[in-house]
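Target chain:
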Amino acid sequence: MSVGILGAGAFGTALAVTLARKGLDVTIWARDADTVAAINEKREAPRLPGVTLPDRITASPDLAEVSTAQTLLLATPMQSLQSVLSQIDAPLSGQHLVACCKGIDLSTLTGPTGVIARAKPEAIPAILTGPSFAHDIARGLPTALTLACADPKAGAELQDQLSTATLRLYRSTDMTGAELGGALKNVIAIACGACIGEGMGDSARAALMTRGFAEMVRLATHLGARPETLAGLSGLGDLSLTCTSDLSRNYRFGLALGRQEPFDDTITVEGAKTALAVTRLTETLGLDLPICKMVAEVSARGVSIAEAITYLLNRSLKEE
């Protein structure tokens, strides 16, 4: 049984490692020739240093070849997903396309499963999301994620195929809740990082996490998600991890904003683009998500942390 992974970043490669250890053959698609060579010849992954890749993992620059696998894990950045899928000529009819990216597409204002449905309507979309760091998965540390697929039979097949001795997957049919939990927690993680970077303390961070979670539930349930999905691994679980750990890219980006320090622009920060997309989406829906709005203002429009804090603290008092 084989699996194809589109994207040679840290998370996609970590999934390849744990699946190969289970005995699956895994082919990774990578654009960069040096990355392909490093994987095939040196058994190394540039984005996952210190990890020796099992022999069952191979890499290829041929997107069409890798895309023939029955199960494809889409581990590209969220804002690149639509472009990558458009480069695949085949309809991928009946194949399982599992999104492993988190965010909301700026052009369509949909999550990854929505992008899949638009680009490859004959495929079966799913999403794999939850509290996880790539190095933890690659090192074989215990990790639990949500595997959401609207098709119960396909979801059960994917759960069985992709679960390993150290990667435990919980199945759901609520793709909307799972993908919005994963997308919005990145936005709140930026806010929490900025809070700590600015020196506002842990009490303020706890308040941001709690009120940020309320915003996650507000938007997701408005779009048809189940509240219990947001209370699970793909929502509250992922939020807890990314708002408190320096290993989170979104949290580190927020820290840099709060400290007024430069941030490495080669690092993908999905939450910044997602904040912009959420702001546009909520404006059309008439929903109020003030923390998400302020993250968009600070990260993309130059509003200062002090101005954002003033805005949030001076909002009208209300019931919880």
